[in-house]
């Protein structure tokens, strides 16, 4: 069983799906930590309800990103994760952190990378007039929303879509894609995952 740490900043819906899949035996992993940079992150209570250990490291209490990342590294060292899943963790990580953990760190991003990096991806997609949108699971590197792609899920962009309706459709696919990719990694299976709701 792989030891899985999950980093969140908010409600943690992708974290919940990963933990549910581990507990159901889909992912051959054990959630050993849910860490948040925000004490009021809704996902913390959800993790605690699963019986998963949680910790908060508030980025506002550190003088710079390097000091914050060092504290996060210390917390990860304590649980010895085989895999780290960023699930709505809204912090840009330092090169030193990604060099240390990047070979075992994943992120899910709400666009079909390399399109629409950064924030407000659904707004970017609507502004660009694309016919399809989606989400990507990728390995984390020092470059923002970069790194080898491990899986993507595609959804149609409808004529009457708003940011909210498009985001909801993409989130449904995130909840399918992230566990599917983590299942393959924890089973040491090669290859990418491709899902489509088109």
From TrEMBL:
Sorted UniProt keywords: Purine biosynthesis, Transferase
InterPro entries per record: Formyl_transf_N, Formyl_transf_N_sf, GART, GART_AS
Catalytic-site annotation from UniProt: 109
Enzyme Commission no: 2.1.2.2
MF annotations from Gene Ontology: phosphoribosylglycinamide formyltransferase activity
Keyword Nucleotide-binding in record: no
A GO-annotated cellular component: cytosol
Residues noted as binding (6R)-10-formyltetrahydrofolate in the record, renumbered to the chain: 65, 90-93, 107
Stored SUPFAM superfamilies: Formyltransferase
Pathway: Purine metabolism; IMP biosynthesis via de novo pathway; N(2)-formyl-N(1)-(5-phospho-D-ribosyl)glycinamide from N(1)-(5-phospho-D-ribosyl)glycinamide (10-formyl THF route): step 1/1
Binding of N(1)-(5-phospho-beta-D-ribosyl)glycinamide, residues: 12-14
Formyl transferase N-terminal domain mapped to chain residues: 2-182
Group of enzyme by EC: transferase
One of the GO biological process terms: 'de novo' IMP biosynthetic process
Site (Raises pKa of active site His): 145
Catalytic activity: N(1)-(5-phospho-beta-D-ribosyl)glycinamide + (6R)-10-formyltetrahydrofolate = N(2)-formyl-N(1)-(5-phospho-beta-D-ribosyl)glycinamide + (6S)-5,6,7,8-tetrahydrofolate + H(+)
Role this protein plays: Catalyzes the transfer of a formyl group from 10-formyltetrahydrofolate to 5-phospho-ribosyl-glycinamide (GAR), producing 5-phospho-ribosyl-N-formylglycinamide (FGAR) and tetrahydrofolate.
Family recorded in the similarity comment: Belongs to the GART family.
Protein name as catalogued: Phosphoribosylglycinamide formyltransferase
